[in-house]
Amino acid sequence: MSDHVAEYLSSGPSFGEGEVIERIETFRKRRPRLRDTVVTLAHGAGGKASAALIDAVFVEAFRNPLLDNLGDGAVIDLPGGQRMAFCTDSFVVQPLRFPGGSIGQLAVHGTLNDLAMVGAVPSWLSAAFVIEEGFPIAELRGIVADMAAAAADAYVQIITGDTKVVPKGAADGLYITTAGVGLVPAGRDLTPHKVRPGDRVLISGTIGDHGMAVMLARGDLAIEADINSDTAAVSGLVERLLEAAPSTRWLRDPTRGGVGTVCNELAQATDLAVVLEEEQLPVRPEVNGACEMLGIDPLYVANEGKFLAVVAPDEVDAALAALRREPNGGDAVEIGRIADEPAGTVVVRTGFGGTRIVDMLVGDPLPRIC
């Protein structure tokens, strides 16, 4: 038990075992508070430390109704009844090339996918580059070519940008920031407040491919496995889903922090339970084996070409059929459901009939994977 939990439990009169458990759960579901005095790698991992930093520094300074939603992008009402989605993302992955992709592809796919998660049809991107002095021009050309191809494949254009060059040693080769704009069709409202008990949780494919591919590509670990990143634009797949299941409640791509952290964000936003079925979680044997060797739960390992969807019970079959007809949706599966209790919590029902609680990611077991 952490010192903070112990302090919380001791802050009142004595109580029984049931009350102890209730107070632990109440404490665990609180938004994390920033206690650090310096930024650590954990603040960039997408888990508890990231949430604490965002709340205490950025939301505190920039607070406004559009930002307070803390979704993958902001949806803005325009004159004439149209709605525009706007999002931004930065990419610092190392190595710059990895099995299945590159930082260039990732920079396009990541922002396109953030737009898709709020129901937008992506239209335009911007791209900004921070380049370290001495970076090979040929390598830069290759990464930019990857970006151009990824954008063309998704029928979007990169229409503005910026470049900065910093002295050698002031950056690790290349960093890229992209921002995206798209329009949200009338009637779409993919937000947590639409989620209801009994809804089903789907995932569009296998878990943890990207994060583990990048980790092994660094060559720091004595592990060999045939794992490719799943980096891909999912906007077309999302359109097929929404055509087949128009009552879809909510979408999210499980990037930093993985499925476990994203499900916790949903549980806390709705004050409902996300109940996952362990035997239905789609994890490739190679990814599962590497995770076991590293002592990492696949639920915390990032994807960059998959998404979670909460759909109405009567649309599950249509949703899965639509996803599975597409090349990047063939492994789509139902992995759980939404329940009333335990409120604000993610639990996994194990193959042995027990349950375990899945908390938000703590620490940073997979640094700089996007």
Keywords:
single chain, 370 residues, alpha+beta, 60s Ribosomal Protein L30, Chain: A, Phosphoribosyl-aminoimidazole Synthetase, Chain A, domain 2, 2 domains, seven-stranded mixed beta sheet, five-stranded mixed beta sheet, 22% strand, globular, HypE
Model description:
- Residues 196-348 form the PurM-like C-terminal domain.
- Pfam families: AIRS (PF00586), AIRS_C (PF02769).
- Residues 72-184 form the PurM-like N-terminal domain.
- The protein has 370 residues and is α+β, with helices and mostly antiparallel strands.
- 33% of the residues lie in helices and 22% in strands.
- The protein has helices at residues 3-9, 17-29, 48-62, 65-68, 103-117, 137-153, 209-217, 235-244, 258-270, 285-294, 316-324, and strands at residues 74-77, 83-91, 97-98, 101-102, 121-132, 157-166, 174-184, 200-203, 250-252, 273-277, 308-311, 333-339, 346-349, 355-357.
- Helix 5 (103-117) packs parallel to helix 6 (137-153) and helix 8 (235-244) runs antiparallel to helix 11 (316-324).
Short description:
By secondary structure, the protein is α+β, with helices and mostly antiparallel strands.
List the helices and strands and how they pair.
Layout: H1 3-9, H2 17-29, H3 48-62, H4 65-68, E1 74-77, E2 83-91, E3 97-98, E4 101-102, H5 103-117, E5 121-132, H6 137-153, E6 157-166, E7 174-184, E8 200-203, H7 209-217, H8 235-244, E9 250-252, H9 258-270, E10 273-277, H10 285-294, E11 308-311, H11 316-324, E12 333-339, E13 346-349, E14 355-357
Parallel strand pairs: 5-6, 10-13
Antiparallel strand pairs: 1-2, 2-7, 3-4, 5-7, 8-11, 8-12, 9-11, 10-12, 13-14
Helix pairs in contact: 5-6, 8-11
Family: Belongs to the HypE family.
Protein name: Hydrogenase maturation factor, HypE
Domain PurM-like N-terminal: 72-184
